[in-house]
Amino acid sequence: MDEFQCIEQFFNKNGSPINPLLSNGFFVGIGDDASVFKLENNPPIVVTSDILVEGVHFSSNIKPASLGNRVLAVNLSDLAAMGANPLGFTLGLGLNKLNYAWLNDFSEGLFGASRLYGCDLLGGDTIKHNSAFNFFSVTAIGYIDGGNALRRNGMKLDDDIWVSGDLGEPISALQLQKESKKLIQPIPKIALGRQLKNVATSSIDLSDGLSSDLRHLMRASFPKNLEDIFVELYFESLVKCLNRNMIKWFAGKKNNLELVFLALQGGDEYELCFSAPSEARSEIRAISEKLDIPLTLIGSVRKRVVEQNRNDEKNKNDGHLWLKSLTNSFDDKYIEKSGYAHF
């Protein structure tokens, strides 16, 4: 089986496009030199890319169907953080061999996610290499349906900090070698991102870890006065966000404070962390109920007082995060920058 037979067998799905915006006479999909599509209403286009490498971003033992789902879902999570709707994607395959059964299962998982989120495969490339580890590159394309995109740079002083879902299962599963559906089959919060578009002031998907990704929001939002700002995270609220499996797996081994710090550094969550004015709390809770997605108020953006916030000078250019106990069970604790580092 050569490259073209591989594409024809597993990735050239004939028939009408999944996404209705592509269903017109201009559409050219798999099999040509490039994809062509025309958007009738000309909404803003959103583009994101990710590379996933075996042994770095996923285990060699992952089932191919789960991997097919994952390589698309993690890109769609970036679209969700922007408040965008999925439209289509391109796929780059770096394979050390062409395995019929493996490719069949991989493509089933890939197109399962494609159908679920209305995101058509538009094209891509395939190469054979001699490395032991496979890799995948996805470029996902979305569009903004009314209004502006959510961005990282809109956080304001006194904003609330919110997070969706629960935290801690992926890093716990990796440390304890447990099975985690959230780790192998992430669910991009597409509908939530759309709902937050006119409510949140900033947003990011949690791929590298809350302590790192929240700092990305801070640096983008306060490029000139980052030293004057800190985010206060509420310990008791974060305890409520801890994943049940995490709590069960570490029962008798870690206390809640240790679990919270572990969850703060854990990546691969693909939840949304966002800021919003305090006046939006009722609206955000209504969104949570409407979508049946837990949304937890975990902190707030504060003006920094040097005397109050001590021992954090070494990280002043990264953003200051402090953990506060609302029940005064411990003194405020500085949260070091942690999580996945790309280099």
In summary, what is this structure?
Helices cover 32% and strands 22% of the residues. The chain is built from eleven helices and eleven strands.
Q: Tell me the Rg in angstroms.
A: 21 Å
Q: In total, how many beta strands?
A: 11
How would you sum up the global shape? globular
What is the strand arrangement across the widest sheet?
A: 6-8-5-9-7-10-11
CATH architecture classification of the largest domain: Alpha-Beta Complex
The parts where pLDDT drops under 50 for at least 5 residues are: none
* Terminal-residue CA separation: 36 Å
Q: In DSSP terms, counting alpha (H) and pi (I) runs of 4 or more, how many helices? A: 11
**What would the CATH topology of the largest domain be?**
Phosphoribosyl-aminoimidazole Synthetase, Chain A, domain 2
Q: Quickly give the structural class.
A: alpha+beta
Describe the structure.
The chain is built from eleven helices and eleven strands. By secondary structure, the protein is of the alpha+beta class. It has two domains: 3-143, 60s Ribosomal Protein L30, Chain: A; 160-334, Phosphoribosyl-aminoimidazole Synthetase, Chain A, domain 2 (Alpha-Beta Complex). Strands 6-8-5-9-7-10-11 form a seven-stranded mixed β-sheet, with helices on both faces. A four-stranded mixed β-sheet has the order 1-4-2-3. Strand 10 (320-324) and strand 11 form a beta hairpin. The model has no long low-confidence stretch (mean pLDDT 88).
